Amino acid sequence: MAGRTHPASSVRDRPAARRLGALIAAALLVAACGAIAPSSATPASLGPTASPAAAVTATPAAPSASPSAVASPTPSATPGPTVVRTPTPPPAPTPRPTSRPTATPPPTAKPPATPPPTLAPSAAVRHGSRSGNDVALTFDMGGRVGDAVAIVDWLVGHGVHATVFMTGAMADNTNTDAGRQVLAVIAAHPGLITLGNHSYTHPDFRTLTAAQMAGELRRTEAALAPYCSQDPRPFFRPPYGGYSTAVLAAVGSAGYRWTVLWDVDTIDWRPIANDPPGPTADEIVAKVLGNAQGGSIVLMHLGGYETYAALPRIVDGLTAAGLDLVNLDRLLGG
Length: 334
Ligand SMILES: [Zn+2]
Description:
Layout: H1 10-13, H2 19-35, H3 42-58, H4 65-71, H5 73-77, H6 99-103, H7 110-113, E1 123-125, E2 134-141, H8 148-157, E3 162-166, H9 168-172, H10 178-188, E4 193-197, H11 210-224, E5 235-236, H12 245-253, E6 258-260, E7 264-265, H13 281-291, E8 297-301, H14 307-320, E9 324-326, H15 328-332
Parallel strand pairs: 1-6, 2-3, 2-8, 2-9, 3-4, 5-6, 7-8
The structure holds zinc ion.
């Protein structure tokens, strides 16, 4: 899970003796900022740009570097470098004053012509690989609270890997702390429970513009972040399972590689008393155990009506069938 480093500030921390290096890094940063327009990819790409530059300058500069360093920044300042190219230096950073100037500055005038970097469309997935035994339990959390906290506590208490997709509105909800409590549990067990983005206001993304979709995702990231440092990227669960080519493009460019659907739907959000009645705990258990297979993604809700009652038998039954419960990091890869 990339994307949450802000190493740029370290450039400014360098002592005066390395001022020269810092100047080079600063020049590169300024140039990069000028070249890159308002793409969502920018922050992630700038991170690597800044750190290698800083790291490189720190070590070698002192003795012989001064002349060559003075010479090199001048050409390098011109091209307003590409984002993509800069990550190359990190492998060979440490001791070479000479290699640095050549590696860092993209020499040609090519970059300005390149369009701002875009990420690939998100991939809609209903299940993972069928060749293994991994099964992912996934829990959405939006409107109803129900047994949410008890469910995540139970998962943690039993060491069961799972994934939670939360709305930003739930994290901001002033009527209940449940969303924030769930996030705190997730934050305390990052390797166990994976966090995904379920939008802010739970709209059908097919009705939104690309800018609105990006806004929903970013607003959710901002709402979750104070309570859980885990980046919800690259996992997005579309409300109502609604997606289209346009949705996948917008979601992908926001950094969500996976638009996560499901192949086992418990319909646990519907109460038993409903007109078409929702499932009893027994029915939820039977549905999951009868349909899950290697690669399955099971859809449940932290606010589901009978979910908590069904969960222990689901976990026991899947495990007894030789299936391994994993989070989406494992099932799909980060
Ligand atoms: Zn939902």
